[in-house]
Amino acid sequence: MPDPIDQLESFDPGAPMTPLPPAEVRRLGDRHRHRRTAGVALAAAAAVVVVATGAAVLGGGREGAAPDPAPPVPSVTTTPEAPRTSEPPVEPADIPAGFPLAAAWPDEHEPGEEGLVGPGPDVEVLDGLEACGVALPAAPSTDRLAARWGNVEDHRSRLLLTFDDAEGAIDFQAQLLAPYRACPREETSDGFTTLSDVRRTAVGGESWAVVRSYEFEGSPSVGLEVLHVVRLGRALLVDTTSGEGMAATADGTLAGQTADAAEVVAAMCAFTEAGC
Length: 276
Known about the structure:
Blueprint: H1 4-10, H2 22-58, E1 115-120, E2 130-131, E3 134-135, E4 143-151, E5 154-162, H3 166-181, E6 185-187, E7 192-201, E8 206-216, E9 219-232, E10 235-243, H4 250-260, H5 262-267
C-alpha cells in the first residue's frame, strides 16, 4: 500500500492559479444570486398557474368555488298527441236525409230543359226575386234544403228553411212578405205593370200566398207567378211556380200547387214541439 506521505510529497498541483480580483468575485456572486432569485420566482409563478387552472376546472370557471351540483332531471311522461286536421268539424244536419222536398213533381221534361235539380243544401232558388227594387232578405236559418224543376213555360222551386225556434220562422216569414206588401203595383218603362196580391191561406201553422200577375198598357197579360209561404213549427217552406197563366187562373194554380206540396208540409211536423 503506498505511503500517503510520499504521495503528498510527490503531488504536482499543475500550473500556478492566479486569484480573481475582489471586484470580479463580487460581480460573479451578484449574477449567481440574481439567477437563483429569478428561478425561484418562475417556479412560484408556475405553481400559481397550475393551482389557478385546477381551481377553474374544478370550480366551473369560478376561481376558488366548488362546482354547482347538476339540477335533477324530472321524468316526463309524453302522451302521443292526436293527429290534427285542417278540416272544420262537421255540424249535424237539422233537416233529415231523405226529406221529400221534390214530392209530386213531374218525373219527365222536354229535351233540352233543366228538369229536376236537387234536392240539396246548395241548390240555388229564388234568384232575382224582388219587389219595387227591394230584394228578398237573406235567411238566418239553421239549415237549408232546396230543389227546382224546369220545363217549357213551367218553372218550380221549393226552399225549406229551419230556425232555432218558431219565433225565428215567424219573424223571417214576415220579412219575406214585407217587400210585396209594400209594393202592390210596380210600373215599368216598357208599358208593363206588375201586380202583387198577398193573400192569407190555411196550410200548416201559418201560410200566405203572393200572387204576381201582369198587365200591359192596362190590360191583363200572360204571366203568372205564385209564392206560397208555409210555416209549421220552426220550419218555413217557400214554394214557387211560374208559367203562362194569368190573374184569372191564379186560384186554380194555387190549389194545384198546395195539393202537390201536401207531402212536404206533412213531413214538416218533425220541426214542431209535438213532432210527427
